[in-house]
Amino acid sequence: MKKFIIALLVCVMALSSCAFGASEFEETWLVTADTTAKGAAGQVFVQLVQEKVKAANSGLVIDYFPNGELGGDADLLRQAQKGYIAIMLCQTAPVVSFIPEVAVFDLPMVFARYDGDTIDKVLNGDSMFHQKMAEAYEKAGLHLLGFMQNATYRLTTANRDLQTLTDFKGLQVRTMENKNHMDFWMAIGAEPTPLPWAELYISLQNGTVNAQENAADTCVGAHFEEVQNFLACTNHILYCNQICINDKLYKALKPEHRAVLDKAVAEALQEMRPRLEEIDKSNKEILIKGNMKMIEYDNSFFSDVLDIQGVKDLYKRIDTATNGLANVLVDSLAAAARQSAPAEAPAPAETPAEATTAAE
After folding, report:
1. What is the pTM of this model?
2. Which of 156, 149, 112 is nearest to 294 (CA)?
3. What number of other Cβ atoms are within 10 A of residue 159's Cβ?
4. Contacts of 38 (CB under 8 A, 6+ apart)
5. Model pLDDT for residues 267-289, shown as the tens digit of each residue
């Protein structure tokens, strides 16, 4: 409640500054918040946007509150919907409760066979997927500004050498309490076990669970190399952040302010991409130096996973829940790959949802 009151007061002060400012030009303040930790990629990204907006000297101001100062992800999404804050950034998982279509990011390994450029064309470019996702955000009272990614993923750490699909059978893996994520692990034979984050390290240490899944930087931050032997690049979920703004506030901005904000976000997204790749690479190296063995897979592994009936069923369910957006995402990725590298691109993919339907 205290954080909500602070957010509301900040918003009122910002609006007052816009309406009654005595400067030579009218200032417009956009209260921006997230839950990212100090120095994390999300915070670096928002600070980049803040700097670029300031450099434009247009009267637009990004008033940034990081590290959960104004609430958790769900709190911030609600505040953004209501206009108590303007802009918020978070990973895609918390957004599903507000925008069901975002569940397409739960499709296991849907991005795993593509590079960052191809994924960026689909998520941030002029694609059918981006258009439909933007429409979904608008229905929820939000305007999609972009997705931050560069083909880095959530990985699996374990005390088992996960060379083949058979090695995942019976694997007790801690995962988020997300039905789609849990159904994926069960489909490949593992035993997903939701646990509070604070209990995970000791649970891995004492064998309550023998695996977990997270991005490389999170694994390093939690020192999982101390209690895990293998780092498996399962690439099952894209490590992706979304940034959005209250739709009414966005449309109410002066055209020049909208242009400044859009340009700042687009430039920051591109500048962050090599940083994300370096963060992923350097943290994998830290884990390896901590005596973890890294396991990498070729495309045949991902194809085998996508051919599992339980995974096909999950794709079909998510496609139905998102009004066909899962198939749009798969088709858009395949089309973008063909455009960028016709000779090397994978053949047009048959989605697991379509394969299941055909089998029926």
Report:
1. 0.86
2. 156
3. 15
4. 66, 67
5. 999 999 999 999 999 999 999 99
